[in-house]
Amino acid sequence: MTIEKQHLEFEKLDLNEGWEVPQGYPLGIEHKILSGMLDEEVGRGHRTRLLRFHAGTFTETPFCHEYWEEVYLLSGDLIVGNNSQGKGGKSFMPPTYACRPPRIPHGPFKSEQGCLLLEVHYFEPA
């Protein structure tokens, strides 16, 4: 399995196709991989993806992972720190950015209107 990123020159993205629910996420949250691949089992790789929340969708528990994560809120609203029923939390609007080291708990997340995030994930070099 190769985890190298491809060389891509400006290519029009089809934002209507290629979306899927990431493993462990609820319906209503989908990602579209733009570049790269992340192998979480062996702790290697990097990926760039779009992540979208449909209106009213939320996660119930915090996330924690072994890779770096950079997140830029492109559009919509993102609520951070809601409870398991989707209540509460702090609301953010674009332009908003986060950079998280490995093993930092974050979330849960919700979007009232729906949102689109650009995310970059990568492991520390060995």
Q: In sequence order, what are the helices and strands, one letter per element?
A: EEEEEEEE
Shape: globular
Helical amount: under 10%
Low-confidence stretches: none
CATH topology annotation of the domain at 48-116: Jelly Rolls
Strand content: 35-45%
What's the name of the CATH homologous superfamily of the domain at 48-116? Jelly Rolls
* Annotated CATH architecture of the domain at 48-116: Sandwich
Determine the structural class based on helices, strands and strand pairing.
mainly beta
Strand order of the largest sheet: 1-2-8-3-6
Largest sheet: 5 strands, antiparallel
- Radius of gyration over C-alpha positions, nearest whole angstrom: 15 Å
Give the oligomeric state.
Answer: single chain
Mean pLDDT: 94
CATH class of the domain at 48-116 reads: Mainly Beta
Number of strands: 8
The first-to-last residue Cα distance is: 18 Å
User: Please, how many helices?
Assistant: 0
What tags apply to this protein structure?
5-stranded antiparallel beta sheet, 40% strand, 0% helix, 3-stranded antiparallel beta sheet, 126 residues, mainly beta, Jelly Rolls
Helix-strand blueprint:
Layout: E1 29-39, E2 44-53, E3 68-76, E4 78-80, E5 90-92, E6 96-100, E7 109-110, E8 115-122
Antiparallel strand pairs: 1-2, 2-8, 3-6, 3-8, 4-5, 4-7
Structure description:
The structure is a single chain. With 126 residues, the chain is an all-beta fold. It has a domain at 48-116: Jelly Rolls (Sandwich). Helices cover 0% and strands 40% of the residues. It has no helices and eight strands. It has strands spanning 29-39, 44-53, 68-76, 78-80, 90-92, 96-100, 109-110, 115-122. Strands 1-2-8-3-6 form a five-stranded antiparallel beta sheet, with no helix packed on it. The chain has a three-stranded antiparallel beta sheet with strand order 5-4-7, with no helix packed on it. 11% of the residues are buried.
